[in-house]
Amino acid sequence: MSSRFSPSPFRSGPSGWRHPDWSRTVYPPRSTAFHELEFLASFFDTVEIPASHQPLRPELSALWARKVSHNANFRFTVQAPVALTHERRLEPGLVEAFCDGLRPLAAASRLGCVVMQFPWAFRFTEENREYFIQLRRALHAYPLVAEMRHASWMRDEALGVFVDYHVGFVNVDQPQHMNAMPATSFLTAPVAYVRMHGRGEAGDWFQKPGSRDYLYSTAELAEWKQRLDRIRKLASETYVVFANHPGGKSVVNALQMKTLVEAVASEAPKEWRRNFARELRGYVEDVRQPSLLEVCGRAVA
Predict the structure, then answer these.
(1) Is residue 273 part of a domain?
(2) Interval 252-283: pLDDT, tens
């Protein structure tokens, strides 16, 4: 029997797009008509909207949907507000305001899923299990995935909660420390999701500004490509989001992963090729022979 399969739609992209240092590393000289999302949607099929302390405004999300309209495959993923995931303020007004901001994206068929990103302290306990279920019910109208940073959520009974309530498990690549979630390839719902935080010293990785200054090597990306191949066999769609944004590293790694997984040539703007000459060697504005495929093939072998 043939082992061939029709892979699910694959989307790779960065988390966020308004990082201060990107004006020098990611974006070209700007005109008054320039919009960051419109530019990124020419190279990626997804961008993650980061969590905020303020509700997502409907007029803004409607604008963002229009700015990516030239890419039919583009889908946003949206982090739930920290008030819901970190502060556990499951108040009707907060939920309603967040959902109001999602509706223009959903109406334009531009919403991939909502990401419930919980802190390391959110361990698998009965109390946290119940809150997880309550939040899932509050956001029942949208596809959901959840990022857990504590390894206790790898237990069978914890994964069972994901499956029972149709929540996708976010597989993370992060610095390793006590009880940190290791690299996994779980699929608990139709949507598969991977978040690449970077590696290095744990310390204040998730709090300290600039601590995500990490560039994945082609060998490390190839490592994850093998996991993605397994996940995509059963997923309806697959997202890989890079959060190592300092210096535009998330953009470069997201482009490399796209090339590697899809096994097709990817374009790279001259600014990216100038700032990351070694990583994007062989990429041109009209790419015909992406050298990354050969490099990663050797890394896996």
Answers:
(1) no
(2) 999 999 999 998 878 899 989 999 999 998 88
